[in-house]
Amino acid sequence: MPIDPSIAIGAELPTQEFSWTSSDVQLYHLGIGAGARPLDAKELRYLEDGKPQVLPTFATVVANIHATEAPKVSFPGVEIDLAKVVHGSQEVTVHQPIPSEGSARTTTRISEVWDKGKAAVIVQESTTTDLDGNPLWTARSSIFARGEGGFGGERGPSESAPLPDRSPDFEVEAPILPQQALLYRMCGDRNPLHSDPQFASAAGFPAPILHGLCTYGMVCKAAVDAALDADTSKVKGYKARFAGVVYPGETLKIRIWKETGQLLISASVLERSDSPALADVVLTLA
C-alpha cells in the first residue's frame, strides 16, 4: 500500500545537517529571477558578494541545494511515484534574518495525511536551528499525490485567505525566462518534471513545468521589492497554496494588498486569462 497513515502520521524523518555559502544564496536568487535590473542598487543587494541579503524563501531549498539526483517520495508509511506528486502548499516563518552563510540542522516529521478521494495530501513540519540550537526558521509544507487517495482517511480542513474587495495597492508583472526551470533546478530540485519533456508528457503535461517553489520565491521577491522597499528583513513569514501550473516563458501577474501586519497577495498567469498560479498568499511583516 503506497500510503499507510497509521505509520506515516507522526513519523520523524532523518535529521539533516547542512551548510551554505553566499554563492548558494546568489544562485538561489538568480534562480528566481534576481538580477533582471542589473543597474538597480536595491536589486543588486540580492547578489552582493560576501553578504547578500537573503529572502526567507531560501529556507525551502538550502538543505538540499547541492543535490544532484531526482528526489524520492519515500517516507515511513509513504511510497509514491514521483510523477504523481506536485507541491500543495508551503509556509516559512523566520525567527531571525537568514545569514548569508552558515550551518544548520533540520528536524522534520509528517504531521498529517489527508484523503481527498482521488488524491492524498501529505503534510510535513520542520524546525531548523543553527548548530548551537538557536532557532532559525520553521516550515510547513504539503504535497499532493494524484491517484493515492481513497484509503478511508479524513479529508482535512480547507483554509483560505480572502482578498480585500478593493483595488490592489501594487500590481507587478514578473516575466519567467524560457530557461527558468533549468536554472532553478540547480538549486537542488532535479525532478525531471521540470526539465525532461518526455517525463512531463508521461505525467500529463504538454511541456516541463516551472517548479512551484520557483513561483513561490518569485512572488515573494516581487512583493518585497514593490511593497517593502526591497528589504528582506521586513518579512517574518510567508505562505501560499499552489493553485495552478506555470510554464517557463510565461508572465506572472502579481497583485498585492497592504493590510495591518501583513500583505495579501494573488498570483496568476497573464497569458492564460489570469489562470491562478498561487492562492491564499500571505506575507507576515516582521
UniProtKB/TrEMBL annotation:
<dbReference type="GO" id="GO:0003857">
    <property type="term" value="F:(3S)-3-hydroxyacyl-CoA dehydrogenase (NAD+) activity"/>
</dbReference>
<dbReference type="Pfam" id="PF22622">
    <property type="entry name" value="MFE-2_hydrat-2_N"/>
</dbReference>
<dbReference type="GO" id="GO:0044594">
    <property type="term" value="F:17-beta-hydroxysteroid dehydrogenase (NAD+) activity"/>
</dbReference>
<dbReference type="InterPro" id="IPR029069">
    <property type="entry name" value="HotDog_dom_sf"/>
</dbReference>
<dbReference type="InterPro" id="IPR002539">
    <property type="entry name" value="MaoC-like_dom"/>
</dbReference>
<feature type="domain" description="MaoC-like">
    <location>
        <begin position="162"/>
        <end position="260"/>
    </location>
</feature>
<dbReference type="GO" id="GO:0006635">
    <property type="term" value="P:fatty acid beta-oxidation"/>
</dbReference>
<dbReference type="GO" id="GO:0004300">
    <property type="term" value="F:enoyl-CoA hydratase activity"/>
</dbReference>
<dbReference type="Pfam" id="PF01575">
    <property type="entry name" value="MaoC_dehydratas"/>
</dbReference>
<dbReference type="InterPro" id="IPR054357">
    <property type="entry name" value="MFE-2_N"/>
</dbReference>
<protein>
    <submittedName>
        <fullName>Acyl dehydratase</fullName>
    </submittedName>
</protein>
<feature type="domain" description="Peroxisomal multifunctional enzyme type 2-like N-terminal">
    <location>
        <begin position="18"/>
        <end position="147"/>
    </location>
</feature>
<comment type="similarity">
    <text>Belongs to the enoyl-CoA hydratase/isomerase family.</text>
</comment>
